[in-house]
Structure to design on (153 residues):
């Protein structure tokens, strides 16, 4: 692996550590689990080890779609703007949790992620069985998959 990649990973780890240290201080002031999650866009949250438990609490009230991807992954970069737009269009019917596999290796291991991008639907803190979507096959396919997951309750 090149020195540049090691350097970038080191920077990502430092940023994640700083975020983990600062996030609890912010979270203590908030009254509910849903409000302690820092949204990056409408109905989109960056999921890390530090806020994973809070995201799972949200899954008890509504569908959470965990999007496992990486910045260096071309299909992930194609998927990201489409699924973020759909998260906004669905008006809070689901929460999109973006997981960077290079930053949150523990979550990638927990869900046994082998391919990128992988979408994992979670309800009541548990993955919906047999419901993963691997790869990006376009907006129509993605919209149909989301509708199917929402229909499961």
């Amino acid at each position: 692996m090149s020195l540049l990649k090691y350097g970038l990973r080191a920077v990502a780890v430092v940023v994640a550590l700083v975020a983990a240290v600062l996030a609890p201080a912010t979270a203590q002031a908030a009254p509910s689990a849903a409000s302690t999650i820092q949204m990056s866009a409408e109905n989109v949250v960056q999921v890390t080890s530090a806020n994973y438990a809070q995201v799972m609490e949200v899954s008890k009230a509504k569908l959470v779609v965990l999007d496992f991807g990486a910045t260096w992954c071309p299909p992930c970069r194609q998927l990201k703007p489409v699924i973020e737009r759909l998260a906004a269009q669905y008006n809070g019917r689901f929460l999109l949790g973006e997981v960077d596999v290079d930053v949150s290796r523990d979550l990638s291991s927990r869900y046994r992620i082998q391919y990128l991008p992988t979408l994992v639907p979670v309800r009541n803190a548990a993955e919906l069985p047999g419901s993963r979507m691997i790869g990006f096959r376009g907006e129509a396919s993605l919209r149909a998959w989301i509708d199917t997951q929402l229909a499961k309750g």
Summary: The first helix runs from residue 3 to 27. The two ends are 44 Å apart (CA to CA).
